[in-house]
């Protein structure tokens, strides 16, 4: 998909950011605005973050605006979402902070082994299946409380529970 194909888009404003997206091919929900800000406010300066299901970059870009001393690897498998994410990164002037990556979350997270302080998994129906890759992407913590080697960091896992879907 080329840049010239980004034509049938809407432009959506949220919390001081602007997001372009083509709603025919991409998920974008204003209902997540509160959740995006809730998470952005939890981020500490200097964190490295992986957003495994980044869409057009809404979580990642808002985090980079709220906490500019961060690096957020932002993965999406949908080429449409990836192209819009790149454009949204430029529009919101967060180049070098939000790093768009086109690919499967499992494969790409495994390339980022041991780098993350925080991982976002906003794909409610399937995110749990990607948990082992997410855990491997967290920082290694040598000599933790029990003296062994573990991982250290936060995972924001969005999932449905309580009902069969
Ligand atoms: C619910 S949307 C995420 C929305 C986004 N976080 C936001 O705030 O607008 C889920 C995204 O996950 C992507 N996705 C689904 N399976 C994936 C996979 N295996 N690897 C990477 N991205 C995937 C979809 O293309 C979609 O953009």
Distance between the termini: 33 Å
Using DSSP, what is the number of strands? 9
List of distinct ligands in this structure: S-adenosylmethionine
Largest sheet data? 5 strands, parallel
- Low-confidence stretches at least 5 residues in length (pLDDT < 50)? none
Neighbour order of strands in the largest sheet: 5-4-3-6-9
Q: What's the oligomerization state? A: single chain
What is the CATH C-level name? Alpha Beta
Q: CATH superfamily membership, which one?
A: Vaccinia Virus protein VP39
Mean pLDDT: 91
Structural summary, described in words:
- The chain has a single domain (3-157), classed as 3-Layer(aba) Sandwich (Rossmann fold), CATH 3.40.50.150.
- It has five helices and nine strands; from the N terminus they run ββαβαβαβαβαβββ.
- The chain has helices at 33-40, 58-66, 79-91, 105-111, 131-137, and strands at residues 10-14, 17-21, 48-51, 71-76, 98-102, 118-121, 139-142, 149-152, 154-157.
- Strands 5-4-3-6-9 form a five-stranded parallel beta sheet, with helices on both faces. A two-stranded antiparallel sheet has the order 1-2.
- Helix 2 links the parallel strand 3 (48-51) and strand 4 (71-76).
- Helix 1 (33-40) packs across helix 2 and helix 4 (105-111) packs parallel to helix 5.
- Bound molecules: S-adenosylmethionine.
- S-adenosylmethionine binds at residues 27-28, 32, 53-55, 58-59, 75-78, 81, 104-105, 122-123.
